[in-house]
Amino acid sequence: DGRQIVSVGRDKTLQGWNTKTDNADPVLQERTDATSVTLSPNSNLIVSSGDDKPVRECVADISIAGHVLQGHTYVVTSVAWSPDGSQIASGSRDRTVQVWDAKTGKA
């Protein structure tokens, strides 16, 4: 809905932002290796990737860990949601792209 964005900083923490108030939300998730982050189309879920290879999903408003999507053999550099929020795509330096079911976490 365009009211929230999420970012990953040099400190590798995931931070939510309210675009209407310009206020930062509480830290959503702490990772020591985050490289990419994306917010689901409905703004309820966050997916992040990092140097540790798994793609992690968490609930945006309460910052709890969801699925850990494992399948890449090297650093995951990018993540993206499908427009309808049903799938997550991840790209890795292992030269593969994985497509995951957002509900089950299965590739």
Q: Can you describe what's shown?
A:
The chain is globular. Helices cover 0% and strands 54% of the residues. The chain has strands at residues 4-8, 13-18, 23-30, 34-39, 45-50, 55-59, 65-69, 76-81, 87-92, 97-101. The model has no long low-confidence stretch (mean pLDDT 77). It is mainly beta and 107 residues long. Strands 4-5-6-7 form a 4-stranded antiparallel sheet, with no helix packed on it. It contains no helices and 10 strands.
Q: What topology, given as strand order, has the largest sheet?
A: 4-5-6-7
Question: What is the number of E strands?
Answer: 10
Radius of gyration over all CA atoms, rounded: 13 Å
| Poorly predicted segments | none
Biggest β-sheet description: 4 strands, antiparallel
What's the helical proportion of residues? under 10%
Secondary-structure element series = EEEEEEEEEE
Strand proportion: over 45%
| Mean of residue pLDDT values | 77
First-to-last CA distance? 27 Å
Q: Shape, please?
A: globular
* Number of H- or I-type helical stretches: 0
Structural class: mainly beta
